Amino acid sequence: MRLLLGPFFLLALTMNTLAAGRPMTIDDLLAVKAVSDPQVSPNGKWVVYVVSELDKESGKSNSDLWLVPVAGGDPKRLTTSAGADNHPRWSPDGKTIAFASSRGGTTQVWLLPIDGGEARQLTKLPIDVAGPIWSPDGSKIAFAAEVYPGKTPDETAAKDKEKADAKSKARIFDHLMIRHWDRWDEGKRSHLFVCDAKTGVSKDLTPKLEVNTPPAPFGGSNDYTFSPDSKEIAFTAEPLKDEAWSTNTDIWSMSVDGGEARNLTAENLGADGQPSYSPHGAVFAWLSQARAGFESDLWVLKVRGEVNGKTATVPLSASLDRPVQSYSWWQGKSSQAPVIGSIDDGGTISIVPFSLRNLDVKFAHRPQPASAPLVKGGVNTAAQGVPDSASIIYLHGDTAHPNEIYRADEPGMEPVALTHHNALLLAELDLPRAESFTFAGADGDKVQGWLLRPPGFDAKKKYPVLFLIHGGPQGAWHDEWHGRWNYQMFAAPGYAVVAINPRGSTGFGQKFTDQISQDWTGRVYDDLMKGLDHALETYDFLDKSRVAAAGGSYGGFMVNWIAGHTDRFKCLISHAGVFDLTSKYGTTEELWFPEWEFGGTPWEQPEHYRAHSPSAFAANFKTPTLVIHGALDFRVPDAQGLGMFTALQRRGVPSRYLFFPDEGHWILKPANRTVWWREMHEWLAKYLKN
User: Fold this and answer.
1) How many angstroms separate the CA atoms of 195 and 352, rounded?
2) Mean pLDDT, to the nearest integer, of 491-501?
């Protein structure tokens, strides 16, 4: 299939071009309506989706279901209750939408008739549920809920109340991990339930399972699926033990009536997830990582079927050398591409078709991915084929546009925006697009970066530069609208933004990603400095004398490292940054991460941990630094931020410590986000505006 040009929102783009608006503010960022989770109806006529809005006063998000015709037209709001209505899924006959709603006090599965009428509550459990999906025959709905293993939902609720009422809040642990991301382990596990679609009577399929299914904390309903005959369910689960130092997840299957579960991917010690059956059940698909102990190994789409009467597994996407983020079966008119997936691709997220020839003839030919993306440019996710059509529905966003729902039709035709929930807001703003550039990095290798000009750009002026360093370290700066580290918000006060994708970044080939492991401060540092030098030399409107650097997580680590190795920056901002690798190892939660990245434990590799710790170079600190941390950050515990601030203060370096007692690795609450941006902008203005 030929390339479809990356979509753009013509109306907003035209308005921004003809009459440049004002710079964006934090109020604008918080006012953006988040469009997500599009689901195409079985008849191919409708898309149901979710729109979420923040309430700054309460600090809570309200989400509702909306409906828009696939052919285009005015969207219709389906729900209006306060709280969360999300995760809509069509019944196989297209007459009912199942969704999760908190309108009754706890989050339960509700059913909404598409032809009109009020939604009715299906499940009535005393605990929250999430992620409802239908069985193909429409008789059952599967969902996830947290329980204490071996206890029923009622017993779980009773134990929760007992804990809440207890005078002592002491916790006792006998094994790791005891906390994860921003939550303490209270002994609960996410289990898979199946309920009757008429009565709501529910059953825990794995009542004694001691692990999470789907995996915590980021797993979802794409980690469980019904077989086409509705008799079996496949699901992703974490290992039975050693989860603190293992990245292994496996895919299991079992009868929808319960019983023994079978491990389908026991041979792979890396991660497996997102299982699905082909529509007719001839092929089973999932995403897989080959290397145990590594979270950023290449995610490959695998398919399993029969070749000459024997079961065979084929790595469908391996030749792309790009991680597959998600995929779906395409029941459209293109028999050459029954699977479409979103891949991390050179600073963008592209939608790619995968060829699977002779799907109904026992998997006879080795499949090959199609050569060209269906959609590229910006970030394109949640792709689904429209039944009996060559069209696909997906979410598209970029630097200047939050996600909206798009339809891509025949090759060569311009994609169509089906929703415009943020059009009026965007029309008021001056939102420059990010410009891609490349340069010769460490070892002369090609490295990519982004440049964003400030709003109201005047080529005759010189602009201060904000240099952004991404986290991960296996992550990437994409051409995207980010809800937190938003390019437009950084540029708004009049700064040019430079963001480099150095060694370790994803979407540039697995070798490029791997080259940061056990080398956090070598080639990646060279890439960053060479990228900044290239931008300063190439774009004459950048003021070389006024440059600041900011980063979060690994980016915060690199800012801390920079503080001890160069004084080229006017000021620095370190968010959730690692200061001392040895002490961080003993207080973080997922131990496989430092053990992979530094070649073992601190007692096995003491010199490696010491040599790559910013704390070892605190004597060189000179640059004014804003340090930011959250008390609930269990990935990079807050002692790291405090340690960095203490060293700066003891060295007499101008510094400030911004601490959030109610936030974790990310700053999420509206009031806290407002403070975060205010302090960030004030710190930059102090050193870049003078």
Assistant:
1) 35
2) 98
Backbone angles phi, psi at 225, to 5 degrees: -160, 145
Using alpha carbons, select from 686, 687, 663 the residue that is nearest to residue 675. Answer: 663
Cα 202 to Cα 152: distance, rounded to the nearest angstrom: 11
- Which domains does the chain carry? 435-688 (3.40.50.1820)
Spatial neighbors of 213 by CB under 8 A, at least 6 apart, are 144, 190, 191, 192, 206, 219, 223, 224, 235, 236, 237, 238, 252
Q: Which residues contact 48 (CB under 8 A, 6 or more apart)?
A: 38, 39, 41, 65, 66, 67, 78, 88, 90, 97
Average pLDDT over residues 250-271: 95
Encoding tokens for residue 2? 């030929």
Diameter of the chain by CA atoms?
74
CB distance 475 to 506 below 8 Å = yes
- pLDDT tens per residue, range 167-207: 999 999 999 999 999 999 999 999 999 999 999 999 999 99
Q: Which residue has the tokens 């998997």?
A: 363
- Concatenated DSSP letters of 87-133: EEEE-TTSSEEEEEE-TTSS-EEEEEETTSS--EE----SS-EEEEE
How far is residue 375's CA from residue 356's CA, in Å, rounded to a whole number?
19
Q: Would you place residue 366 in the very low, low, confident or very high pLDDT band (cuts 50, 70, 90)?
A: very low
Task: Write out pLDDT tens, residues 100-125.
Answer: 999 989 999 999 999 988 999 999 99
Is the Cα dihedral 532, 533, 537, 543 positive or negative? Answer: positive
Angle, vertex CA 234, rays to CA 232 and CA 235, nearest 5: 145
Q: How confident is the model at residue 680 (pLDDT cuts 50, 70, 90)?
A: very high
